């Protein structure tokens, strides 16, 4: 993906179509949605894959300069994305993965999306489960308190466990080599402490009637964000008066948006948002 955020937004505004905004999570860049963009464009949407503030333009640059993204917090990223969405002429659908799924719910809670899909979403305040597999997945980021202002990569072994445990080692290696970059440690630290901090940035307004329809997608073999976390988010979100649904994709892990069966997930998201937009 070579187009800037501004170029993508201008293209979406000039198209007259409903924008489909994609929000990535940790250890990824906006180009992790590159295979989703033409799929949604062919379905009649104007796709926009937004970058986090300070995000590098390429995987090579991100690996060479982790300080560009270091220290970014959930609140900073959410406010940045909200500002960009505010420049769209039409209210978009928003689709996010992992911490991007958390950000999707924050943005929806602000009334900024026409319909939303949160895929393997990181938890927000009020989601009480803390599975051991999640702790193990995040240990490289959260074990050292001084990491809060740093950005760290995962080793392949760590990525294999946390991100790509349900695909072959060859496919996991391919995903890692192509996409994995250092990620800011602040968001997982914030998420881990959200239920102990009443002023946390890691919170979503689940009751706002302007939230719009929401689908939560869970990978059945996801170590980083297992079913307990996805269903915990659903239980909070279903208090909303708008449509709230959840689906579990069996045999899928955290890399379900990137692996060879990504289109199955994309079609689940597409079928949902098409019902409302």
TrEMBL record:
<dbReference type="InterPro" id="IPR000073">
    <property type="entry name" value="AB_hydrolase_1"/>
</dbReference>
<feature type="domain" description="AB hydrolase-1">
    <location>
        <begin position="21"/>
        <end position="268"/>
    </location>
</feature>
<dbReference type="GO" id="GO:0016787">
    <property type="term" value="F:hydrolase activity"/>
</dbReference>
<dbReference type="InterPro" id="IPR050228">
    <property type="entry name" value="Carboxylesterase_BioH"/>
</dbReference>
<keyword id="KW-0378">Hydrolase</keyword>
<dbReference type="Pfam" id="PF12697">
    <property type="entry name" value="Abhydrolase_6"/>
</dbReference>
<protein>
    <submittedName>
        <fullName>Alpha/beta hydrolase</fullName>
    </submittedName>
</protein>
<dbReference type="InterPro" id="IPR029058">
    <property type="entry name" value="AB_hydrolase_fold"/>
</dbReference>
């Amino acid at each position: 993906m070579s187009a800037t955020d501004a170029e993508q937004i201008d293209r979406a505004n000039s198209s007259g179509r409903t924008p489909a905004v994609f929000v990535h999570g940790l250890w990824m860049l906006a180009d992790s949605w590159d295979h989703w963009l033409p799929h949604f464009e062919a379905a009649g949407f104007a796709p926009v894959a937004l970058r986090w503030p300070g995000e590098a333009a390429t995987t090579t640059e991100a690996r060479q300069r982790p300080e560009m993204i270091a220290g970014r917090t959930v609140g900073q990223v959410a406010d940045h994305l909200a500002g960009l969405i505010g420049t769209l002429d039409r209210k978009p659908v928003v689709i996010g993965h992992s911490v991007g799924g958390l950000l999707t719910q924050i943005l929806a809670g602000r009334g900024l999306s026409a319909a939303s899909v949160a895929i393997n979403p990181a938890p927000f305040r009020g989601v009480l489960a803390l599975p051991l597999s999640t702790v193990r997945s995040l240990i490289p980021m959260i074990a050292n308190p001084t990491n809060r202002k740093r950005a760290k990569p995962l080793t392949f072994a760590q990525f294999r466990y946390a991100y790509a445990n349900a695909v072959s080692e060859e496919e996991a290696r391919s995903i890692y080599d192509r996409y994995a970059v250092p990620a800011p440690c602040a968001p997982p630290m914030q998420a881990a402490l959200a239920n102990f901090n009443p002023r946390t940035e890691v919170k979503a307004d689940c009751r706002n009637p302007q939230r719009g329809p929401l689908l939560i997608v869970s990978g059945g073999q996801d170590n980083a964000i297992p079913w307990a976390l996805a269903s915990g988010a659903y239980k909070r979100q279903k208090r909303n008066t708008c449509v709230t649904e959840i689906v579990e994709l069996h045999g899928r892990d955290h890399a379900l948006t990137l692996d060879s069966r990504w289109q199955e997930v994309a079609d689940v998201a597409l079928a949902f948002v098409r019902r409302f937009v």
